User: Fold Transcription factor domain-containing protein from Ascochyta lentis.
Amino acid sequence: MELLWHIQHGTDTDAQTIFSRLREGDDPSAILGPLGTKAQRENASTESAAVPHSRPLHTHTKQHIDLATSDKLIGHPDLSDSATLSATLRSQGDVLTEAFSIFLKCTSSIFHVYTQEEVDALLSKSLETDTQTPLSTLCEVCAVAAVGSRFSRSRISPELGEYYSSVTKQLLDECIEKTPLQAVKVCALLAMCNIINKATAAFAYVELGLGVARIKGLLERTPHAHMDHSIWLESKKVVKSLLACRGWLQATLSYIPETEPPVRLEDVDGGDQCCLDCEDQTLYQTQVARLTVIKAGIFQQMRSIEFSKESSEAIRLSLSQWLDQVPEHIRLENLGKPTVSPEAHISGLYLHSFYLGSRMLVYRWILSWIIQIRQEGIVPPPETKNESSRCADEGLIAAKESVVTLWNIYEGGGAVRHCWLCIFQAYLSCCIILHDVLQRALHGQSTAHLDNLELASRSLEVLAWTGQLDATAKQYHASLSPIYALATSLSVQVGESSPNPANEHVHFRVTNGTSPLHDAARKLSQMLYVALKPEQERERTVSVY
Assistant:
């Protein structure tokens, strides 16, 4: 449990060290040595347990619930006994009710952790006055509240959300010991809390949750003899959410440990025959988990295999096969039919947004490969020209379709300001579209492509909206807005194009020059670049593209 304490209270560097060395099979006592003991570091961790340094506090409005600033809550939580913590949580009844309500609304359709009945039962237990609520249950209560508060920061202050998160982390060992199946749920929620700004910590919680799940047999095709089948099926849904978080972190944040064991599609599909005959909510959750496993596999291949016609075709085939097996009634073209409920419509749009993100990942792969081999003075082999151009064209189409899909989610009231999918899809699609506009302008192509700027403006609007509450979204918006402003001022070719191989796709052409347009094009290339080399070789900057 000493290692768990360092994950809970230590720095991001500590989490990275623990995560890497555990995966390498190091002895726990050897890992702890350089980190120091819990007693040595506890005082230094008191404040960071409540407010992580990597996420500055937002400015608050009068809409925040008044009790959010109670002296009892802001600071180190009192976990001396369950009665004290229960009393503190009961005093926050209105806040908990709000957080629990928004939690279900914003997470349940795609990422299953708790059912409506389970959430209602947890809330009821947290507000009871005549019973002794176990600390493991209070850990679950605070985990749900921590995630819910992140989706409702206009009413619940960030400080209070960090309080709930701090309590959850400190009680996690109690939950693992007393109720391990519930601890898997808590790990999934802690991963969601950290997934945008603390990727390594999120990975640590995902791996911890999957480790407990593996011990309890939740990654098997059939349940252990001592486990009720219905409980096993319910727990498998949570495992799918953990796998989805892991796959998304790997692919979108370009983060895969070198020793990462592969996750098989069978791990996702087990027990429900790929959920082809199950209810829509479970169907969406399974399809998202399947897609993120495929997406993580794509990134694994990107890291281990040089780009070639064969490797690219294999990746595109895996995505096409996923799309082909999607049930007819949740295909993108059928989601707008009157028979589809608003909830199913939004869930389906999120699902296909995941798919389009995978297509954009392939685009980033080929662009990054071109950048990398140019840094090494290598000319792309002629046999890759047609395939790389096809990837570029499909990536641009995916970016434009992604904006349309995300805009429909946004206008339909299904977007969430602190949702990592909304934020990163808006960011990546905007980068690709602006990259297309600037590259074509630099190389003298028709200005008809400027029509795509309307789509870029929609991505920026979503980023501006999410950026009102999320620091990462705000940073992305600030990075892209000046480039968008420059692109909107274009009407004719600017500057002279650099020499390029005949018939090379415009997205891959060199943009030598010192004008603001050249600088912006190079910056977009840097934003889209995915490191394809091992960790020790990734320090090189993008200087020749």
